[in-house]
Amino acid sequence: MSTTCQTVASHDAMISLQGVNKWYGEFQVLRQIDLEVNAGERIVICGPSGSGKSTMIRCINRLGEHQHGRIVVDGIELTDDLRRIETVRRKVGMVFQGFNLFPHLTVLENLTLGPTWVLKQPLEDARDTAMKYLTRVRIPDQAAKYPGQLSGGQQQRVAIARSLCMQPKVILFDEPRSALDPEMVKEVLDVMVSLAEESRVTMLCVTHEMAFARRVADRVIFMDQGRIVEQNDPETFFTRPENERAVQFLNQIL
Question: Which of 79, 89, 114, 164 is deepest in the core (most CB within 10 A)?
């Protein structure tokens, strides 16, 4: 079933973008984006550089502000209301390209900071949760180290664990392998695959790792020039892409 340039409608939508547009000055980076993501769905977003992929997911937790249209996350529409923004950010975790860990805090302190300050968890409970997720991303032995003592792959796994510690309903990944050396990419992707297979958290991942998309994604979205020009299940997208721009893109990276 083709879903090219169409919204997948569902009453169970965790995320809904309706007619979303965004400009940087006179340059329009998002053009009439319509997208619905169901609870527990795993979405991979790909496309050429500058197509609006990262901008779109950053708008979902208001790290980027859209100028027109509606974005609704778990029933809450994102507006200029700071209380709504804070509520949505408690539900939406984000793993950045550059890790964004506090260098002066240990791994364990990085993981407990959000839960104790934002979620008001007792420190002992936050530590237990942090160790659970460090074990899940396979680095519990690194808890007492500082980020600068870790490899890039280990830092990225800490960033994933930190996001999980906030108990999000949604996790956004913004090209999580782009800051890594090639030999570290596999270890991070293995953690992400494991997370996707074990958890029903809703995931949106901007990446060019097509093997990851084939294995994990429920749906692949292809963007070009600020638009969603094709979306489909991985098998259909990779074997029978319908948009000519998507065909060219896949021919270049596969």
Answer: 164
What pTM was computed for the model?
Answer: 0.88
Could you tell me the two tokens for 23?
Answer: 């400009």
Residue 126 has pLDDT above 80, yes or no: yes
CA distance 183 to 136: 21
Supply the pLDDT for residue 237. Answer: 96
Phi, psi of 22 (to 5 degrees): -145, 140
**Rounded-to-10 torsion of CA 59, 62, 66, 71:** 70
C-alpha span between 20 and 125 (Å, rounded): 39
The set of residues, in sequence order, having a beta carbon less than 8 Å from that of 111 and lying 6+ positions away, is: 126, 129, 130, 133, 134, 158, 161, 162, 165
What is the per-residue pLDDT across 39-74, written as a single tens digit (0 to 9) for each? 999 999 999 999 999 999 999 999 999 999 999 999
